[in-house]
Structure formats: C-alpha cells, structure tokens
Amino acid sequence: MARKPKGRAIDGIFLLDKPAGMSSNKALQQIKHLYGAAKAGHTGALDPLATGLLPICLGEATKFSQYLLDSDKAYLTTARLGEKTDTADADGEVIETRPIPALHKDQIEALLITHFSGQIEQVPPIYSALKVQGQPLYKLARKGIEVEVKSRQVTIHSIRLLAIREQEIDLEVYCSKGTYIRSIVQDLGELLGCGAHVSRLRRTHVGGYNAAQMLDFDQLNANIQALPESTSEYIQNYLDGLLLPPWSAIESLPLCKLTEEQATALRQGKRLSNLGLTINAVWQVFAEPNGQFLGLAETDDNGCLKGKRLIRTDTLE
To answer: Which of 17, 217, 233, 288 gives the lowest tally of CB atoms within 10 Å of its CB?
Structure first.
C-alpha cells in the first residue's frame, strides 16, 4: 500500500521574493512548512546572493513546474568592475584585480549589442549547479577537480545598460532558460579589460509572472500580523488566497474546452477524435460546464487528443 503523504493537499503557485543569502531550497521548505503542504517544488534555483522572483509550486501545480523551468526570465544585475572572483559573484574570493578604464556609454552598449544579443555561446561558471558526469560543477570545483565545461547556446532577447558609476554598471537582461548572468558579467569585464563580477542580481520575471505579483517573507509576516483575526483557520484562508492557480504556469499554451462526457473519457485514458484541434500540439484542458481544470493533453498526428499531464481534480475548482 502506498504511503499517504504528510501535509495538506493544497494546490497552487506562490510567488516568493527570495531574500539574499538564502538558498532556493531553504526558501522552498519555508513556504512548504507555512502552507503545511504535502508536496512542493520550485521552478529554477536562484543563487544564494540573488533576490527576486521564485515561483513555488504546491501540490498538483508541481506537475507543470517544467514549463516555468523552460520559460524565459528577466534580471536586474550590478557588475562590480576591476575585480574577478572564483565564483563570478560577490560570494566568491577575489582572484584578480585590475585598473578600471574610462567607461563610455556608447562603448559599453556597442559591446552588449555585438557580444550579448540574440543567440550566443556561453560557458557556464564552474561554481554552478550544472551537472557533469552526474555531479554538480560546484561540488567538483570545491574538491579542486578540474573538468571541461562545454559552451552551450542561449538566447539574449534584450540587454540594456541602465547606469554607469565609478566602479559599477547596472544591466537589465531578458533571456532564455539556462542563461548565466554571472557569465555575461564576467565576459563583459574581460571585454572591458578590467574583469568583473556580479555584486547584485535580482530576478524580475519568470514566464508570465512579474515582480509586482511577488511577496517577501517580511511582507508576508506583516500581512499575517495585520489580519483582523489570528485563528489558524483565518490565517490559512488568507494564505490560500495568495496562491495562483496551477494553470497559470501554462497560460501560454492553447486552450481546449471539453464537455463533461469528453472529460470523463480523457480521464479514463481514451483518445478523443473529431475535435478540430491542431495536430501535434499541447493543450491546457478545461471541462464544461464549470470550467474545471483537467491538466495537459496533446494531439497526435491525426489530431486525436490524449492525456499528457492530468491532475487530481478532487480539490481543484
């Protein structure tokens, strides 16, 4: 007999403003504990130094976390010039210092356009969670084990110079999944001839989510303290009301509405034909008449619809 998971069967997505100095896993565990959730997962780790948008999926929403992992992201970052660190950010040790040349807006913008726009080849930092031979790179680096890190292609949709100061520049980057902002800053430092590392990093967008929607732990605790009632039920209802529905993670996918009879057949593993759907596509599926979310389904070469990632529907409305 399968062991019943401990915790509530709560489903939804919490948009956390992760604080600096905290690992993404610790942030995940705190939200999971706060909600008493049986199941939780985040959608792409942020470095401990980084702050900003970290979507936390609870319950059935974890089934769609991959779509957020694969989504485009946006960041604000500050590059500290003249200092190169072993981790390419301020958490590392300074391994080289160089004088900073006179900085000109036009020069930096030209470098950004030439070297960091569109599809580029990027070498991930050795201190990263990227796995090589089954081991995260940062673990190998800490053991002094040198491995070849192959470059990979990422897409920079846009990169903007926001500000120039004596020893720092601020950038805004909108990019594809798998892009390392630390690598961009480190490479830019080399192009400027002085070296650089990330001193600040803040994620502002993940897929269709943006910074205006997120809450940090201080705001969350203050809001709870300000509630007119302090009963556990009242607090739980407040917290549950902050969650976005699981389908908000996949709203970019096309929508398919089924009759109640069709929905039952889909849940039973049957293929649905003659729906007039585009072939070889993935769909977010809802059942009429109540608009109940069923999960993801896909069409085959003949346009027949079959379940792909269907959810438990006893708690979702």
So the answer is: 233
Query: Which domains, from first to last, does the chain contain?
Result: 12-70+210-246 (3.30.2350.10), 73-203 (3.30.2350.10), 253-310 (2.30.130.10)
47 a catalytic residue: yes
What distance in Å separates the CA atoms of residue 115 and residue 121, rounded to the nearest whole number?
10
Cα–Cα distance for residue pair 130/113, rounded to 1 Å: 27
Options 17, 47, 89, 187, the catalytic residue: 47
**What one-character-per-residue DSSP string does 191-206 give?**
HHTS-EEEEEEEEEEE
pLDDT at site 279: 95
Model's pTM, two decimal places?
Answer: 0.90
Residues of the chain with pLDDT under 50: 1, 140-141, 315-317
Q: Counting beta carbons within 10 angstroms of the beta carbon of residue 231, is it exposed (0 to 12), middle (13 to 18) or buried (19 or more)?
A: exposed
Among 85, 82, 70, residue whose Cα is nearest residue 182: 85
Q: How far is CA 167 from the centre of its chain?
A: 30
DSSP the chain: -PPPPSSB---EEEEEEEPTT--HHHHHHHHHHHHTBS-EEESSPPPTT-EEEEEEEEGGGGGGHHHHHTS-EEEEEEEEETEEETTSBTTS-EEEE-PPPPP-HHHHHHHHHHHSSEEEEEPPPSSSS-EETTEEHHHHHHTT-------EEEEEEEEEEEEE-SSEEEEEEEE-TT--HHHHHHHHHHHHTS-EEEEEEEEEEETTEEGGG-B-HHHHHHHHHTSS---HHHHHHHHHHHPBPGGGGGTTSPEEEE-HHHHHHHHTT--B--S-PPSS-EEEEEETTTTEEEEEEEE-TT--EEEEEE---SS--
